[in-house]
Amino acid sequence: MGQMSLQLLFLTSLICCTTNQARLTVSPSSSQLFYGDFVSLSCEEDDSSAGWTLRRNTTFETRTQCGDGWGTPAGSSCNISYVDPLDSGVYWCESREKATSKSIHLTVSGGSVILQSPVLPVMEGDDVTLLCKTKTTPSNLPAAFYKDGSLIRKQPTGHMTIQHVSRSDEGLYKCDISGHGQSPSSWITVTGELKITASAPDSPLSPEPTSPQLVFILIWYLMVFCPYFISTLLLVSLYRHRTTGQMLKSHAQPKHGFDNNYDDGIHAVTTEHHF
Fold it and tell me: At a CB cut-off of 8 Å and minimum separation 6, what does 156 contact?
């Protein structure tokens, strides 16, 4: 039983330790950039000892890290002072133990029009604003916006706001400014909203949580109760070892009192019947 307790302790420690994660942020927060723009990518980390580094995959390289021929490391950030279309690709944070953050896709355009859209997934129910802009002219030119290749709206000021986004708004977006050109396409991801509501004692049960909610609840419980659970396992293990040792010790000691009384009884009976 003691070995089982230690195994449970080990597994629980592994689960608790894997809750630390890194979040990749981009400034400016746009999935598309003009040739020659400046961009800074940062690994916002919960555990600085994990040694998070920024890596990328492009058309010509795989899993190269910041400073290895591209970018300038600055603590947990990586700065690219002059982006090039060759910098287009997938970026992510990676720890020494090969744990990874969610990846993002950056597109560097050599053209004159880009679509500024969220680089990170947006929450279901939020409002999302898309901006169609050129490199040399003001950003309030009329623009047409497309989703999955179909025209969805024409805006006189180059801005389009999608109110209360849902999963149906997820897709591939691009824009076009007459006389200037068309932007590259960017994928917009919509994720489910995580909400934990506590129902009153006399109220009906809340709806069954979705899978993302279950993951969030599990991580929250692990972060809160892991220290108490580990302490309890240690105390139980120590108590069982101590109790087992005392029982073995008591069984190993001879019962002298019982043996002496038994011998005296035999002697008395023998004496009484001696003629």
Answer: 142
